[in-house]
Amino acid sequence: MSRAKGNLAEVLACGFLYDKGYTIIEQNFYSRFGEIDIIALKKEVLHFVEVKSANDYESAIQNITPRKLSRLIKTGYVYLKKNGLNVDFMYDAVIVTPQKTWHVENITL
Fold this sequence. Notes:
Blueprint: H1 3-19, E1 23-30, E2 35-42, E3 45-53, H2 57-61, H3 66-82, E4 88-96, E5 101-104
Parallel strand pairs: 3-4
Antiparallel strand pairs: 1-2, 2-3, 4-5
């Protein structure tokens, strides 16, 4: 996927989350382990969000590999420590396809 398509998917994901009542805290947070696409807050819970886009849901969700998930989790802990936060949090995915956008909460289960 091109960077332009990835950027568009992230913009759409931010709008989608905003419409669902989330406050976007930060985008594209980097650590030595990887990147978190979106960090959002809703009802005092911090959400670390991975955005994936493809032509269909199955192709997009399969791109969240165990390695990618591990990097996302490590980067989330870096963010919490760097900002001195002791809050409830979870790891989510927003899947963007030409037909629909899905929000998958708590992808670490």
